[in-house]
Design brief:
alpha+beta, 2 strands
């Protein structure tokens, strides 16, 4: 890993309408486990065996970071696989709902209940369209249209 830096700036501004301030604050984070060469030379002057210990610790730290990244990637992959599975199951049940509703509506119309079959078919199609519309809103992390007005 390398050095990362966070900087905050603030300046004092004076106008006829008022005054303001600007403050500058910079933080540098060094997440390298291995020190700079000058520091290593100073450490070697104290005890030459410490360099081997630092190098060994650096290797362990690097291995840990690599394993950590691999574990994160595995978790993300499992999560994506689970979402795909949930999407497939949802689509399967939605399709089953539409097929069953269409068949039941057909049976009602065939039995002589044209109005009831037509109303059932219309309500079923509207509910299916509503579910799909709410699902698209849910995927984009937005509130459904019914909750936006509140």
């Amino acid at each position: 890993m390398a050095k990362s830096q966070v900087s905050v700036r603030q300046t004092k501004v004076e106008t006829q309408q008022g005054t303001g301030q600007h403050l500058e604050h910079t933080q540098v984070f060094d997440d390298n486990f291995l020190q700079d060469s000058e520091e290593l030379e100073k450490i070697k002057a104290v005890d030459p065996r410490l360099i081997d210990l630092i190098i060994e610790c650096t290797k362990k730290e690097q291995d840990f970071r690599h394993k950590n990244v691999l574990e994160r990637n595995r978790i993300v992959s499992q999560n994506a696989r689970g979402e795909r599975r949930i999407n497939f199951v949802g689509l399967f049940f939605s399709f089953s709902y539409l097929v069953f509703g269409t068949y039941y509506s057909f049976q009602l119309i065939f039995a002589g209940n044209e109005i009831l079959g037509s109303v059932f078919s219309g309500v079923m199609l509207l509910s299916a369209a509503s579910m799909l519309a709410n699902r698209k809103v849910f995927i984009r992390n937005e509130k459904p249209p019914s909750e936006k007005k509140k």
